[in-house]
Structures are given as C-alpha cells and as structure tokens.
Amino acid sequence: MSLTVNLISACITTLYFILPAYFSNASGLLFGRGAPVDFGKYDKNGVRWIGNGVTWKGLIAGTLIGTLTGLVQGYFAPEILQNYSQYIITPIIVNIGNGIIIGFLLGFGALVGDALGSFIKRRIGIKRGEPAPILDQIDFIIVALIFVSPITGFNSIFIIISIVLTLIIHLLANTIAYLLGMKDVWY
C-alpha cells in the first residue's frame, strides 16, 4: 500500500477508535446543567476548583454516551479496528464486551480530562470561557488515551494523529457553531 493509503487508513481508524471520547465530551456539554463536580468549592485563594461548566449530570451522561458508543462500535463495526490496527495500535480483539470497556474508558477519561483542563486553567488564572490555546482543545483526548492505554497499547503515530485530528475537528466545530450563532466565540 502507498503511504497516502496508509495515512488515510490510519486517520480513519484513529477517528473511529476515539469516537467515544468525542461523543462523551460533546454530550457532557449538552447534558451538563446541574450540580458542579467541585460542589462550588474554592481554594485558599478564593478561586473555584473547577467551575460550573463541569457537572455531575454531564459527567454521568457523557460517560454513558461514550460507553454506548463503544458498545455500538463493538457490535456493528469492529472490523474497522481489526483490519487497520497494525498501523496504529497494538492489535486488539474488538467485540461488544471490549467495545463497552473501551467506550467507558475513553468516555470517562475524556470528561476527567476536561475537568482537569478546567482545574489547570483556574490555577493559572484563566477564567471560565477565556481561551487557553491547545489546552482547551486536547485536554480531553490526552486523558482519554491515558485511561484506555493499559488495554490498547498505542504507538506514537496513533497519538500524533489523535492530537492533530482533535485540533482540526475542534477548530472546525467551534467555528461552525460560532457562525451559526450557537457560540459567542469561535474557539
């Protein structure tokens, strides 16, 4: 196979694999109204630990969506990962059970990563809604990959493709949402 075909295959497989993290992260925002995960607590400097944007409802709903996404992947299209896994990850047998586990780890990991990103932003003085380039875009995917890595074994190509795809998709999605009037800022 040519390098172009290999790269396209690797990108498609990577995107497919990390869908539970993407869906979880997006659904956490959609269902995120309610009690904040930090219970409204402030640190000794009067700064919120995380903020109102990360809620228990969003965490639970997002984790469920990520888990369900993994279940669907394990049931309907596991061959996508099995056919191309030699390019990007340690080969894994994908079935419903593994799909659920992978979906849960990616989904929950994505939301923990988002919360960790919010925590870091507050510690360095960035308020909710203010931009933190790179951190805002990749916090969720990095932690999701860390959570699932003990059972999948990624190589560096997979990680690089995951981060690059996430940066591109995040920028495109937010720009479209801004142009449609769904967001106040393009980032």
From TrEMBL:
Entry keyword set: Cell membrane, Lipid biosynthesis, Lipid metabolism, Magnesium, Membrane, Phospholipid biosynthesis, Phospholipid metabolism, Transferase, Transmembrane, Transmembrane helix
Transmembrane helix among keywords: yes
Catalytic activity: 2,3-bis-O-(geranylgeranyl)-sn-glycerol 1-phosphate + CTP + H(+) = CDP-2,3-bis-O-(geranylgeranyl)-sn-glycerol + diphosphate
GO biological process, one term: glycerophospholipid biosynthetic process
GO molecular function: CDP-2,3-bis-(O-geranylgeranyl)-sn-glycerol synthase activity
Cofactor(s) it depends on: Mg(2+)
Gene Ontology CC terms, in alphabetical order: plasma membrane
Major location (coarse): membrane
InterPro entries per record: CarS (IPR032690), CarS_archaea (IPR002726)
Subcellular location(s) of the protein: Cell membrane
Any matching Pfam family: CarS-like
EC number(s) from the headed UniProt entry: 2.7.7.67
Membrane-spanning ranges: 6-23, 54-76, 88-113, 134-151, 157-180
Pathway(s) served: Membrane lipid metabolism; glycerophospholipid metabolism
Entry coiled-coil feature ranges: none
Lineage: superkingdom: Archaea
Membrane topology: Multi-pass membrane protein
Family: Belongs to the CDP-archaeol synthase family.
Function recorded in the entry: Catalyzes the formation of CDP-2,3-bis-(O-geranylgeranyl)-sn-glycerol (CDP-archaeol) from 2,3-bis-(O-geranylgeranyl)-sn-glycerol 1-phosphate (DGGGP) and CTP. This reaction is the third ether-bond-formation step in the biosynthesis of archaeal membrane lipids.
Protein name per the record: CDP-archaeol synthase
Name of the gene this protein is made from: carS
